[in-house]
Amino acid sequence: MSATELPKTGFVRLPSIIAPHGPIPVSKSTWWAGIKDGRFPKPVKLGPRITAWRVDDIRALIEKGAV
Q1: CA 56: distance to chain centroid?
Q2: Is 1 in contact with 59 (CB distance < 8 Å)?
Q3: Which residue, among 28, 29, 22, has the nearest Cα to 61 in the 3D structure?
Q4: Is the backbone peptide bond immediately before 7 cis, with ω within 30 degrees of 0?
């Protein structure tokens, strides 16, 4: 999935964000470390076992080139 394939609005789950299927080429551990130190956007809990990110936050991250 590339940045152009992201939905226009809503939420996306982690497999749609990071490599190998997502537009951000980092590992899961790098992604979570980046959230902890503020490089990547914080997730939103949609349920007890469902974590997602706002599409707008992911698009902003890609446009900023912070990856």
Answers
A1: 10
A2: no
A3: 22
A4: no
Instruction: Region of 2 please: left (phi>0), alpha (psi -120 to 50) or beta.
Output: beta
- 8: amino acid identity, one letter: K
Diameter of the chain measured on Cα atoms: 31
Contact at 8 Å (CB) between 55 and 9?
yes
Tracing tokens 């190998």 back to the chain, one arrives at 20
Token duo for residue 24: 């951000």
User: What's the pTM?
Assistant: 0.87
Angle 35-6-60 (CA atoms, 0-180°, nearest 5)?
45
What are 16-34's pLDDT values in tens digits? 999 998 999 999 999 999 9
- The number of residues making up the chain comes to 67
Q: Structural domain boundaries of the chain?
A: 3-64
